[in-house]
Amino acid sequence: MSSNIRVNRICQYCQKEFIAKTTKTKYCGDVCAKRAYKDRKRKEKIEASNEQTKKSKTKSIEEIQAKDFLTIAEACELLSVSRWTIWRAIKRNELNAGKIGRRVILRRSDIESLFMQ
Ligand SMILES: [Zn+2]
Fold first, then answer.
1. CATH number of the domain where residue 75 is located
2. Has this prediction a pTM greater than 0.70?
3. In what order do the strands lie in the sheet with 98-100?
4. Left if phi > 0, otherwise alpha if psi is -120 to 50, otherwise beta: which for 97?
5. What residues of the chain score a pLDDT lower than 70?
6. What does the DSSP 8-state code read for residue 101?
7. What is the SS3 assignment for 17?
8. Helix 83-91 vs helix 72-79: crossing angle, to nearest 10
9. Which pLDDT does position 98 carry in this prediction?
10. Shared-domain flag, residues 51 and 77
């Protein structure tokens, strides 16, 4: 039985109104259907990549926690504070800092001792 139903639908991709033959049609045509499919695939890829980034980030925190000496950047990551906060702590002599050439090195035990007072 061929139906003669005509349904007014809004395309989920381009938001244009179109006439569909079924109430389940999501897109106004093949072009929008394909574009929507591509968008969905792209989003999946982005999510997968974000997940990857998250994982390697947690991994790097574990690596930092295993180190005895940290760079300013690593200390920032470990404490979730800004570079500036670390610098201020150094300037106020709240945090000991060693220097190797131009690099400032922090001892993880010094950072931990901030919490022991
Ligand atoms: Zn469309």
1. 1.10.10
2. no
3. 69-71, 103-107, 98-100
4. beta
5. 1-3, 117
6. T
7. strand
8. 110
9. 93
10. no
